[in-house]
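Help! Submission page says 'invalid entity' but I think these are all valid:
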Amino acid sequence: MSALEFIVRPPADRFGLKGPNAPEWLAAAGLEIPAVPNTWTSSSLFVARLGASEFFLEDLPGGTALRQLLEAGLPRGVYPVLREDSAFRLSGDGAFDVLAQVCSIDFSSMVADDRPVIMTSMVGVSVIVVAYEAPDETRYRIWCDPTFGRYLQQTLGHIVIECGGNYTGVSE
Amino acid sequence: MMYRVDAQPDQWIDRAVVVSFTFEGERYQGFRGDTISSALAAAGVPFLARSFKYHRRRHILSFANHDSNAMFQVDGVPNVRGDVTLLSEGMQIFAVNTFGGLARDKARILNSLGRWLPVGFYYKAFHGRRLFPYWEKMFRALTGLGTVPLDAPREATAKRYAFCDVLVVGGGPSGLSAALEAANAGARVTLVDEAFRLGGGGIGCMDGEHRATQALIKRVVGSPKVSICRATTAAAAYADRWIALADAQRLTKMRAKAVVFATGVSEQPAVFRNNDLPGVLLATAAWRLLWRYGVAPGRRVVMIAGNAEAYRVCLDLHSQGVMVTSIVDLRGERAGGDGAAACAALGMTVLAAHAPYQAVAGEDGTVVALEVAPLGPAGRVHAGGHQRLECDAILMSVGWAAASQLLLQAGGTTRFSDALQQFVPQELPDGVFAAGRMNGVYEYADRLADGARAGAIAAAYAGFGTARPEAAVTVQGARRPSHAFPIIDHPAGKNFVDFDEDLQVKDLENAAQEGFDSSELMKRYSTVGMGPSQGKHSNMNALRVLARVRELGVGELGLTTSRPMYHPVPLKLLAGRSFNAERRSPLDAVHAALGAVWMPAGNWRRPEYYAVPGEARAHSIEREVYAVRNAAGLIDVGTLGKIEVYGPQAGEFLDRAYCGKFSDQRPGTTRYGLMLDESGVIVDDGVVARLGEEMYYFTTTTGGSATVFRELLRLNALWGMDCVLVNVTGHRSAVNFAGPLSRELLQPLTSLDLSEAAFPYLAVRSGDIAGIDARLLRVGFVGELGYEIHVAASDAVGLWQALSAAGAVRQLRPFGVEAQRVLRLEKGHFIVSQDTDGLTDPLEANAQWAVAMQKPFFVGQRSLKILAARGPRQSLVGFEMQNASRLPKECHLVIDRGNIAGRITSIVYSPTLGKAIGLAMLAPALAQPGSEIEIRGDGGAMLKARVTSTPFYDPGNQRQRMAAP
């Protein structure tokens, strides 16, 4: 049993890459990249594969790995995608109930060990959601366009509270 | 008169708990578990409602969740269905659709004015213009059910999504059987039923069906694979097995891998004169009242029979001490079979081959007798042999209509079975199955078997178990469950087919004779099936009447289209939480601190202007305009769409997607981009900057960013070009720093050379502003020297603060959307979808200069060539008012010799020019500069204006090209 919780995740360096040479370039840089689209890996960086040649990268709060990766610049066929997403985490018992009220995806049938990446719409906002296993629960990371961040935060926070959970801006 | 009988096992009421309530101000008592209608019936209330059109007295008819004549205003909430709404302590209940209360309803006079209210009366009344206002006022006063409380609080409901392997709709024997079979195969099953308890028609009868159904319910409830939703209506079915489920709290969007519709059948009334009197009701209504709520329909009951079910109900009633005196069987001798013999043995008189001629009302308006006669040819009785049967209740058991609405919505089709006199499924969409009486399967054991068959097939479709071969639908022609024509003519009418809309047989016949002789046309003209019960009790009989008029079979006419919602759903459930995704600029807090007055722009909130204490709105806007024209102004334009295109074919892609030429654009420059759709209509615009050989950065309109990006992705996928699109709208911010002092104020903040030679008009540069990486575009939307500065969203506040500090001592002022609107209009710039509409092409908008027709291809080019050959039908032009003291509004019409010749698209008072100016879409004949036009303003005042050339301000565009000081 774990308490339903919704938090605003702390600022961290985030970036995206697109282009036909992006997979090879990331692999050559020593990153473990997801083998198939709509899955994620985590090594020195969190890497979500959004498509055949599209990636979303996130560093740890205060981390430098992403900056180091990009310092040398990008080769031909690898294009930068500015990402200043708002980021949240939803976890605990009742998370399914919250997700069922805001999104048409069946998260209950998702296996977190498969490391799924879901690109969907949540309360009218395009989001990226990943599921991952924590010691006693499945957790969900949610990213959205920063201009929708306040709206998504307030809307989900309200529903979480209504479902008996905690909504804070506390960092992980 | 109805009354409460002794307690029975498995009833739905708890007689230990008394519930008090009021109806029409009178105090009553019921029991916990009672519905409003059952409590009122048990209390002997003689009538519950007034009918929609004639304001006739009405009572319970179907008691099946679509009892349209038993709807109430309950504690202020209108149109509460009494047959399914539980009673609660202190409820205040009133009848709807009355003038002066239920008993003294003044509108009851309409009952005697029927001859002046023929079918299609609305259409006929509204035909003439002169009396239109009179009729409109009268209809608005007379029509409608209940009163909407305009001060009711907004109730947000938590709409939700749900998922299952197999959804079973209907908790009767076949539905239960289907659910159990699917669950046993391993599927996650959701079973939905609109009633408070499972069992449907299998519960509450004297034979073994009751016990068998109870046992089945126990197994279903005990199955860990079955989730049960009681008191939940499957209100609509959409493609791909998407079913809307409505309960009292919320709407659930259920996505099922397979669906079994075991929705059963709706009992249909017999049609005869006065079949709507209080005390005349469907047999199943009486049966439910008795078994669930312990309410008997009357003390002397007459049954009108058209099937075997009638005898079964009579035996049930008799077993509970209710006296059934006579059974009037529309069928021939011996058609009643064993049931008739059993009833006769109990002392009931069976009148075979007889028909109800008319019901007779007593002084209080309730039924006191049924006049019957030997049945003649279809719909008629013989002249002699009439009998009067004294009674206080008349039950009707003459047939059914399949509840196939959801199946049809899901994409299924039906055919009419002459043997069954019922529509049965013909084609089922993938993953959708039907079971039970909807299939024409009426015997109890067959219903169980049919449900199990459907459940197994559905589970197999969802990936569980092995499908059995699909058995053919059992059609039981030998015991026809529905009479072919339970409709009796009467010269005096009032033989109702549709109890919602007070439609009689003659109304439907007249509609057909007036040419509305298909099921769809008849529905629209007569409104049959358009009331609260949505035709559940009326569509079949209406089809039979139409079939007789046209001398066709019912199957040749077909059902009307079934559309969502199948069942009335409170609007609050549809609205849910009313999510309204609002975007906020990264500068939102800065604007708020500056006194921004907000306005919606697309899904953003933007500062309309910045309020200054003690300063009127107009004055604040005027001062913002003044600052831009004479010093410098700063506006947040981060709401513009911002898209990047990379790759070897990026320029070629833009050449195709936009109507301008970009592949030959030099890096470091910008060009205006105009986007058309395939029909040549303007859909968006923006500025295209070439940042490198293989990199472009361009803007879209605020409201169009998502649509444009989606369309560009589609086009790129279609064309397969070697380029990549990136939408950075929310991740980048932008401000427009404009005014004659802008260069002077900006230069100290950047290492970029802002001189005219190094950074001319329409150039783009990348560099730093106060240490922030930025892209600077020299554009002139507001008609002054200016820089559109684009930075990462996280740098927006820093940039704004740096610019504000730089301009603090030089009259720099933030300006909002309203000032920008004035400034751009002074320059004559149009705004897409304000000054253009869904038909405006570049030729009409005088934007030919932005179109490179010589290109091999661009979206809309072919249409534009055709439009060019035809010539413009309208033209966007500037105008100035001859008198600025009274201004028209946007969308006011331009009138030329009494005809509409155009419309105003934008109009403002220009403080810079000291006159009112605007843009108008005009007929070409009026579009020449100097033409005098007349605009019809508020109250019909004709206001004079003159067409002028644009720009109004700085026609030579010298200020935005301003040379370096």
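Support: the input was valid. A stray whitespace character was the problem, and the output above is from the cleaned input. The longest strand of chain B covers residues 899-910.
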